[in-house]
Structures are given as structure tokens and as C-alpha cells.
Amino acid sequence: MIDLHTHTNVSDGTDSPSELINKALASGIKILALTDHDSIAGWDEASAHLRPGMDLVLGSEISCQTEDGISVHMLGLLFDRGNQELQDVLAQTRDNRYGRMERIIVRMNDAGIEISMEEVLAQLSEGATLGRPHLADAMVAKGLAKSRDEIFEKWLHNNSPYYVAHYSPTPERAIELIKAAGGVAVIAHPMASLRGRTVSVESFTSFVDAGLDGIEVFHRDHTADQRVLLTQIANDLGVLRTGSSDYHGSGKINELAENTTEIDQWLALEARADARRVVRA
Q: What is the largest CA-CA distance in the chain?
């Protein structure tokens, strides 16, 4: 089984990188991608705990925003960690998350929802990328709801009055950065409408022109009809199809390998990187 989209407590997951490796092995996954939000901080720990029987694909899920304000997530896989331009953009994105969180908290406080930055940061693992899930965890810890999902449904969705955008590159720019670093770019859950507005079908042409390698077709947040449509788009545009769990540990209901990538699609995707960077024990 091949799962090309997972998270740890380096971003908004709940498992450490080593715990993720152990659970993936127990699940029978043979090829696993680690794709924390805007960060590669979990790469070394995951690599150090890898054992024979599973290959590790190192990457990151890069936060992007289109010119008209639509949030897009781009999976960068197999890129050279030494590419400074890409690392600078990831760092800038992470840094801007703090200012964004402060603005969200001010809006919530003004509306009578009592939560503080200190309470949010208490939910953040050392070196982790700050995000709305940490705010949700703080609100759950305070007894405002029972789960992250409930918090997001009520208060933290993209159409909420408390939503605040943050710095992020355009999808095209993120693709260009990933490709310049020798990696491959796959757009994550592009039709997950519950997360907010989604990109148009026409947008994919611009992404492919920038160097897009694949589309995450098989994902929990895509309907059967959307999977058919995305498969057709991928075929028409000559890019590859992936399937992934988007696993976050106990932070989401997603289970490891609940959606997977076909071996022929993975081999073709891996061949598009400029070097062989899959980690093996």
C-alpha cells in the first residue's frame, strides 16, 4: 500500500514522526509520504526510525492561495532540502501564522469567545507549525466543544467571521519552487468543498503549465463524482493520480491507507524528481 499524504505533531497531527512510522508499518504500508504543513522538521526523526519493509517519501504540504483568495494545498515530494529559496518561503509562511492566529483570537474575543494565545501555544509541540487545529485543541481543552471537528464546523471554517488569511505563495509559485528544488508537485484534495471555496476546473491548466505532476484524486473529502471528474482532468492534462489518507492521528477521523496510490502512478511520479530521494532503512 502507498499513502502519500500524512501529518505528525510537527504540524497539526498528534503522532510524533517515530509514532507515525510505527503505525504505518503496522498498517502494512510499503511507501509512506511525510507531508507536514510548511515544514520539514519531522524528516530526520522519521528517517531515523525507519525499518526494513517500508520506503519513506519526504515532503511537505505547502499552504497556497490563489490571486482571488482561494486556499490551495500543494504537496511537495522528494525535493532537495538544501534548496534555500523553498526553505525561505516555508519559513515565511510559518512565521506569518503567528500574526494570523493573534488576529483570529482578537476576533473571537471581541465576539465573547474567551481564548488566549497562551492557551493555543500550550497545544503546540516544540518546533511545530502553528495552525487553526491548535486553536481548536485549545478550545476543546477549555470545554467549548468536544472535538476539533465540532470547533471547525461551528467557528473555524473558511467562511467563518473569524477566518483570517495568511501569507502564502500562489499555487503556481509553489509548484515552481518545488520543481526548482528537484521535487514533484501534487495538488491536495482540490475539490474538498467543506474546507471552503475550491479551484475551478479551468485552474488546473495554469497549474500544469507551472509544472504540476499530479492530482490527489482519492481522498476522504471527495465524492465519487468528484473522483471521476478529477480522474478525467488528470488524464486530459497528462498528470498522475494519487490517493492518500491525509492522516492526522487522533486529530481527524482519517485512517492510514484509507485511500492509496496505485504502484504504476507512484513509479511514474517518483521518476519525475531530478534525483532518487526515497529513504530506505
A: 53
